[in-house]
Amino acid sequence: MFTALTTLLALSHFVSPLAVPEPSPPSAKEIFQFPNPTFVENIAVRPNGNLLLTIIANNTLFSLDPSNPSIASPVTSFPQSNSLFGIAEIEPDVFAVNVGNFSLTDFKADFGSFAVWKVDLRSYKCSEKGDVLSKATTSLITAIPEAPILNGLTSLRLGSPFVLSAGSDPGVVWRVNVHTGEYKVLLRDALLEPAAGSTLPLGVNGVHVHAPYLYFTNSFLQNGLLGRVPINLLTGDATGEFEVVVSDGGVDDFAIDGRGNVYMTKLDTFEVERVSPGGEVEVVVGGPDQTIVEGVTSCAFGRGRRDERTLYVTTNGGSLGTLPATYRTGGKVVAVDLKRV
Ligand SMILES: *[C@@H]1O[C@H](CO)[C@@H](O)[C@H](O)[C@H]1NC(C)=O
Ligand SMILES: *[C@@H]1O[C@H](CO)[C@@H](O)[C@H](O)[C@H]1NC(C)=O
Fold this sequence. Notes:
Blueprint (H helix, E strand, L loop, with lengths): L1 H18 L8 E6 L5 E7 L5 E6 L3 E5 L7 E6 L5 E9 L2 E7 L1 E2 L4 E2 L5 E6 L4 E2 L5 E3 L2 E7 L9 E3 L6 E6 L4 E6 L5 E6 L15 E7 L2 E6 L6 E6 L12 E5 L3 E6 L5 E5 L4 E5 L5 E6 L9 E6 L8 E6 L16 E6 L4
Antiparallel strand pairs: 1-28, 2-3, 3-4, 4-5, 6-7, 7-10, 8-9, 10-13, 11-12, 14-15, 15-16, 16-17, 18-19, 19-20, 20-21, 22-23, 23-24, 24-25, 26-27, 27-28
Bound molecules: 2-acetamido-2-deoxy-beta-D-glucopyranose (NAG) (2 copies).
């Protein structure tokens, strides 16, 4: 009896790893969800690896520690506005952010309400419970009353005095000096403009510099496209022609890795797609029949050794899904392990 049992145990011990395979962690994992509804719009990553999240129809900038993502901590609020859009690091741990009024009910920006603000997080500290221990310093860089909307945002490079801000309507790129507040329309091109006859005046949306180019998305033109233009990296001026990289359906924002692969967030199909430097397109996560990144809006790479191949993807919770204007979940942050996709 004893011997038989031992044999059985030994056998089961031997057999079980084969019968029940090691559970492997999923390649895409939701790490945080805001209350429903929350339209998470954009993301930037601090040097310490924490994620900064902007929200449309919520005027607070939030910080999330992806290694302990139980709470999104408030960083700072903009009481004179209701929405935050693009965010970009301008100096180590100092960020510029597009702020303005936007209504999700009629999906319309409040003309003249947009401005670029500076948020200095070098002094910012919060507890593990999300309580602010030491505040960030927030200051206005400049209002741009001539801009109907300011959407995506990028620095020319860390330490540059200039940021480029996407004026989705009427489809221009603004240049702003973050020290003096001086601004002007820097780039104009047909590839930046909204699609003719589109009910949403939404042309250029995401903007990011990957030398020697400024890459940009145009959400709906030619069905939605990723484009680029070579620029002078000191001034932002175009040094060549605007061109289409791929035209592959409705697109919001994107992130570029060190090898020049572009990860785009697809508006209609709820996917993140990778565009290789050679122009091949493949789906990395999501799909029209999947909810993992439903309502995907933007993405950014981790900055730590452990998560440098993790793409953090934000969503609006599906508010623009097949059922119009219904939020299926609160906006989320999904961590996609690119080593496993
Ligand atoms: C902004 O989001 C936070 C966190 O979800 C929430 O507590 C707060 O009520 C929101 N504010 C508005 C104006 O919706
Ligand atoms: C945003 O809208 C609110 C409410 O209508 C208004 O009081 C505020 O002045 C607007 N902000 C800007 C920057 O125009």
